[in-house]
């Protein structure tokens, strides 16, 4: 009877972490798994979300002012589409367009500065 308990214990859920650690094969190499790139939301979706949140925390006068600024930012000749293009290029070049290594902030800021 004790043997059955020990055998059952070895195959129980509590044994799974030990089994995961001891039998890892190439298909279990989750640290080097190929992941899809982070999505880059469209500019208009980002601006719509921004305005939704602004409406919650700001007065109606400030929200209207913010909407005017957002319209100018999103205009075809505005800074928004240029910055979006910089982010799209960065997404294609980098594994993670949101963050990078040392010096990445500076290069992103310089790219944004050149859009002005």
Automatic annotation (TrEMBL):
InterPro entries: Carn_acyl_trans, Carn_acyl_trans_N, Cho/carn_acyl_trans. The keyword Membrane does not apply. Residues 38-99 form the Choline/carnitine acyltransferase domain. SUPFAM superfamilies: CoA-dependent acyltransferases. PROSITE patterns: ACYLTRANSF_C_1 (PS00439). GO terms for molecular function: acyltransferase activity, transferring groups other than amino-acyl groups. Gene3D superfamilies: Choline/Carnitine o-acyltransferase. Pfam families: Carn_acyltransf (PF00755). It catalyses: 4,8-dimethylnonanoyl-CoA + (R)-carnitine = O-4,8-dimethylnonanoyl-(R)-carnitine + CoA. Keywords: Acyltransferase, Transferase. It comes from the Eukaryota. Pathway: Lipid metabolism; fatty acid beta-oxidation. The keyword Acyltransferase applies. PANTHER family: CARNITINE O-ACETYL-TRANSFERASE, ISOFORM A-RELATED, CARNITINE O-ACYLTRANSFERASE. This is (diamondback moth) hypothetical protein. It comes from Plutella xylostella.
